Amino acid sequence: MSPDGAANSEKYLVTCGLPYANGDIHLGHLLEAVQTDSFVRYLKLSGKQVAFVCADDTHGTPIELSALKKGILPEMLIAQARIDHIRDYAGFNIGFDIFHSTNSEENRNYAELVYSNLKKNDMIVEKEINQYYCNYDKRFLPDRFISGICPRCKAENQYGDVCEKCNATYEPTDLVEPHCIICGNKPELRKSSHLYVELGKCENFLRDYINRPGVLQDDMRNFVKTWIDEGLKPWCISRDGPYFGFKIPGTDDKYFYVWMDAPVGYISSTDKWCKDNGRRVDDYWSTESGTKIIHFIGKDIIYFHALFWPVMLMNSKFNLPSKFFVHGFLNVNGEKMSKSRVTFILAKEYLEKIKHPQAPEFLRFYFASKLMPNTSDIDLNCGELISRVNSTLANNIGNLHHRTFVFCERYFDKSIPDVHWDEAIATVVDEAAKEISGYYERCELKNVVEKIHALGSLGNKYYQDSKPWELVKTDQVKAAEVMVTCVNLIKAIAIFLKPITPEMSARVERQLGSIFTWKDYAFSIKNKPLGTVEKLVKPIEEEEIAPVFTVPVNTEQPVSNDEKDGLITLDTFKKIELKVAVVKSAEKVEKSSKLLKLQVEIGKEKRQIISGIAMSYTSEEIVGKQVVVITNLKPATLFGHTSEGMILAATGSDGKPILICPEKVSGSGAKVS
Ligand SMILES: [Zn+2]
Ligand SMILES: [Zn+2]
Fold first, then answer.
1. What is the rounded CA–CA span in Å between residue 581 and residue 671?
2. What is the DSSP string of 473-538?
3. Ligand 1 centroid distance, CA of 169 (Å)
4. In terms of pTM, does the model score above 0.85?
């Protein structure tokens, strides 16, 4: 008997990609985490034994480089990242069973084990190669310390290991026009000895593996097959020191390449979780365990997962993944997520800037409403997020819940009446449950959401057509039947949505006084008191969500020495261009209580500025005033209006803005310094 008491149920090990410790969790990470978490929650809800495992990916040159720039040890950098990552995922209710680190003793042991088995199986060769060496910086240049043109697609500014444009992987020496990223000089070639995994020896195994039914989506299988057809080159798994990672046993100054020990983190994190919870790692990773290993990954890392990883596992006789759910990239408002644009939205900004308490769950719901098990890119659109949340959760399901529960409160003494439900609706729900189970198992979350929306609409139509507000005066029993039916339908919807919106479903559970599992969807409730009725959903307004889509984020620019102590130099201040402007006209921005759209004149130049001063000033009050404007601010879009500058204001004791104006009327366009 296992600790769950679920000895005979199927066992799953589910992972999502390990976030790299050299950066914050952004909405792209969350797309994958939400997809994985919803799948895991469904499996758990339906009684399966599941371990949901993740960790920070902590090694390699980018981490070393970042720590170097910050003047701290890599260990300090990854410790902080882990705290931040755990906090951000928790903010969106991602329910990992463990979030570990690849910089752990468990991971060192497994990396060494995998390596020694590869060696034992004659899979490792040592080759002396020409490697780039920077004469200026006096060091060998690992892949991330070198940049050049991709040998395959000719994209510029690609690192020495993988092209971010076409996903090709290659050796640094394949790069066209290489240069050192520290000093920009052209490096020279020097001899260095490295360790390679001879992937070609496993070609037959790999062909067989990727063709196993269900392991890869069709397009991904074709992608991987092309790589195998092109010929599997030996894969270099060593790097010269200095390198932040695990030293390779039996070498002087060689380290495992980060992509060698990162996926091993799936095993070592499982091991740690097993040790902490009185389980056996063999029950998950041995070939006899029968556990289904399912990896959720982005399409950019399929090469590592579908070629290197199975070879590593097979040579150590570990359980092979049953399935990869590979997803596409996240775009924001139709544009690629890019660090230099407002489309790069961090999880913590979403959590901090949107004050609506249900906003994290709304993002889960919205992502789910778009996710299918394919590799198409997903667009996060601000307006669409609002309309999907409000139309399905607030106006459909929330409305059905509210009108039903309030009716029971008012006319049936705060309880669910003691009559039987409408069997026709109960049958519809039974059939929907089967359909929705299938959608969850195949990870067709979009279909789950559509089906649930249809059930909500059915409920509202049934309610409307039945007219319980009239029945209650003429036929109490019939009115009671309508209520019992709607309450049971709401219960079923809450269960169907529980993997996606666990908190909203918990509200229904609180009001019905039970915690539900999947099989509880069947109609069963009557003659029961209702808990305190609370609304399921507060609709979300554009004004609440707009801030994360409009304000550019800090793009990890290196902090110069004079900024570290919080002080800036005069030169830094001089970069800000401040001028006196005259407000020529002003109007309220629709749907916003805080914003005014102003036309200002700065000398001879006219500009439009969107300013958050409507709480303190009316349009009439502000026209004609002289104000101080930052004129060299990057334009931003607020509520669909371009803003070309910012007006300075102080914050009053009541929190409302007070304009900063010249003490005497000065010439429009005058410089402020
Ligand atoms: Zn390329
Ligand atoms: Zn250099």
1. 10
2. HH-HHHHHHHHHHHHHHHHHHHHHHTTT-HHHHHHHHHHHT----GGGGSS---SEE------S--
3. 8
4. no
